[in-house]
Amino acid sequence: MKPTRSVDRVRDYFIQRGINIDIKELPASTRTAQLAADAVSAPLGSIVKSLVFVADGRTVLALVAGDQRAEPAKIAGQANAQAARIANADEVRAATSYAIGGVPPVAHPTPPETLIDQTLLRFDKVWAAAGAPNAVFEIEMKKLVELTQGRVADIVVADK
Fold it and tell me: pLDDT digit string (tens) for 109-147?
């Protein structure tokens, strides 16, 4: 039996919920927010970075706007943890079943605690990774909040 491709797992997640989402598999990499924004001709801020953190040993998924930087101390505070750090590649794969650069905000084996950067609310629709470093999907921001059951919070570095 052939293993299911990561992108197919994300596609199946939406199909099982009756949500019509068009996953775009692109010839170029969308591994970084800037590459994804360029590939879909969208503002950098409308790209969702799915960042995995380890907070007191727990997995926390931070959904951060492409033009923002996550603040580990704020993530720790929002997660009621003493400290938080970005997960390494092995930890990301173990926690989400996806590789860095393709981690989607949904379709995880065990849904993680999710924090959503409040600056994403600037956009009605956002783009997120779809399981591979060349696959993305567009979704209404309110639907993303609903599906992830994420908590909108201040989790980014303050403007200077």
Answer: 999 999 999 999 999 999 999 999 999 999 999 999 999
141/33 Cα distance (integer angstroms): 17
In three-state secondary structure terms, 116 is: strand
Q: Which residues, other chains included, contact 90 with Cβ-Cβ below 8 Å and sequence gap of 6+?
A: none
At 159 the pLDDT is 75
* pLDDT of amino acid 4: 61
What are the DSSP calls for 27-71, one per residue? SS---SHHHHHHHHT--GGGEEEEEEEEETTEEEEEEEETTS-B-
Rounded alpha-carbon distances, angstroms, from residue 4 to 9, 96, 112, 141: 7, 15, 21, 27
What the chain holds in terms of domains, given with CATH numbers, is: 6-153 (3.90.960.10)
Listed residue (116, 137, 141, 143) closest to 30, CA to CA: 137
Read off the tokens for 141: 């921001």
